[in-house]
Design brief:
The chain is α/β, with parallel strands linked by helices and 259 residues long. It is 47% helix and 14% strand. The structure holds NADP nicotinamide-adenine-dinucleotide phosphate. The site of NADP nicotinamide-adenine-dinucleotide phosphate (NAP) has 29 residues, from α1, β2 and α6. NADP nicotinamide-adenine-dinucleotide phosphate binds next to α1, β2 and α6.
């Protein structure tokens, strides 16, 4: 399918690996020029070079912490007035409801709620003026069904979801869509990091921990960054202009809900 976005420009945050990279690659495959971001310059530059080589699109790499005002300013300055924005950042650490202080909550809100909101505020006016734009926020399945050990994520991402629910309906009339993609368990370093504590607590191997988690997924496996990226690219395509303010689960059926 021709996604109809060749020649468009995108900012993809937190994209040197994992789901962000999956989105960047799928957009590049559709002919979209990229600004990609992550904190670690070496991995980011390697990803930028690989995408340039493979898809023959322009890729600018901005090594910065997207959760800081300076980081966001650098990213937006490198790709002003993008047609497409994919927001993403690392997820908060696991723990229990009784563990977290106010500062922990502020950090999680900054990273997973206020950062995507600030980025949207920076790029939406130009998208609306041009009459076309696509925003995809990478959130989590925890928005639909809370994950007990990820209370910081449950809280921060639900706040972002509320903001998107209202804002997406205010900008849709200008040809701009905002939607959220909700990953379930995907085969990335983040999944690996979350498997680690289970392995240690229960004295089981990595393969056992993965097999146990995969068993809870009707699809019987972890998702891949490529599948995730393809869904993101479709939401950014010309075909998705009537999809507004949705929260789309990509979880292999793991969230046991009817709607
Ligand atoms: P990942 O494989 O660990 O990749 C994270 C990417 O984000 C890396 O490129 C990392 O590079 C970059 N990054 C992290 N913090 C950043 C920051 N402050 N500023 C800029 N870049 C940053 O993680 P992932 O699995 O793709 O997860 C992406 C998001 O989806 C996370 O919020 C995660 O919680 C959420 N999620 C993932 C899953 C899953 O199963 N994978 C499930 C539900 C939700 P640097 O470290 O160099 O900055």
């Amino acid at each position: 399918m021709d996604l109809g976005i060749s020649g468009r420009k995108a900012i993809v945050c937190a994209a040197s690996k994992g789901l962000g990279r999956g989105c960047a690659e799928a957009l590049a495959a559709a002919g979209v020029g990229l600004v990609i971001n992550a904190r670690g310059a070496e991995a980011l530059e390697a990803t930028a070079a690989a995408i340039r080589d493979r898809y023959d699109v322009a890729v600018t790499a901005v090594a910065a912490d997207i959760t800081t005002p300076e980081g966001r300013a650098a990213v937006v300055a490198a790709g002003p007035a993008p047609d497409i924005l994919v927001t993403n950042a690392g997820g908060p650490p696991p723990g229990l409801w009784s563990d977290w202080s106010r500062d922990d909550f502020i950090r999680a809100l900054d990273a997973n709620m206020l950062t995507p909101i600030a980025l949207m505020q920076a790029v939406l006016p130009a998208m609306m003026e041009r009459g076309w734009g696509r925003v995809v926020n990478i959130t989590s399945q925890s928005v639909r069904a809370p994950i007990p050990t990820l209370g910081l994520s449950n809280a921060a991402r639900t706040g972002l979801t509320g903001f998107v629910a209202g804002t997406s309906r205010q900008v849709a009339g200008k040809g701009v869509t905002i939607n959220n993609l909700l990953p379930g368990i995907h085969d990335t370093d983040r999944a690996e990091a979350l498997d680690g504590p289970v392995m240690r607590a229960e004295g089981i191997s990595r393969d056992e921990a993965r097999a146990r988690r995969a068993k809870g997924i009707p699809a019987g496996r972890y998702g891949t960054p490529a599948e995730f990226g393809a869904a993101c690219a479709f939401l950014c395509s010309v075909h998705a202009g009537f999809i507004v303010g949705q929260n789309i689960l990509l979880d292999g059926g793991a969230t046991n809900v009817t709607m």
